[in-house]
Amino acid sequence: MAAADRPVVVDIATRRRDGRRQDRGDGPAPLLRQVYGEILRDERRDQDRTLDDVARAVGMSKQYLSEMERGRKEPSSEMLRSVCDALGLPLENLLARSVRRLSAPRRTGQHTVTGPPRVELMAA
């Protein structure tokens, strides 16, 4: 069978809503701010709302909200609550979804790790 004739298998668990591959399964657990950002972005997109729309409802810049969603900014608890309120997402729901994502099985090297991430301190 030619390569072009072979069926394509897609693991839907590793695809995001926008079709891009999630890297959650490989390597170390993501930072909490990255998980919060993914959830907020998913929720905003599920509601078909723009960055500008949500940022205006919160009273923040579109750039700052974008950086929060990409996990580049460490938002305060007040900022998280404001964004959740603008999305109609209870803060408790954000926290529960974050726990589920962080405790999902992930691969580190040759091993699959389940349960909460383990913290390791390393000297520089």
From TrEMBL:
Keywords: DNA-binding
Family matches, as InterPro entries: Cro/C1-type_HTH, Lambda_DNA-bd_dom_sf, TransReg_Diox_bact_type
Record region (Disordered): 1-30, 102-124
Molecular-function annotations in GO: DNA binding; DNA-binding transcription factor activity
Pfam family, one: HTH_3
CDD domains, per database record: HTH_XRE
PROSITE patterns xrefs: HTH_CROC1
Residues annotated as domain HTH cro/C1-type: 40-94
Name of the featured protein: Helix-turn-helix domain-containing protein
Annotated Basic and acidic residues bias: 13-26
Gene Ontology cellular-component annotations: cytosol
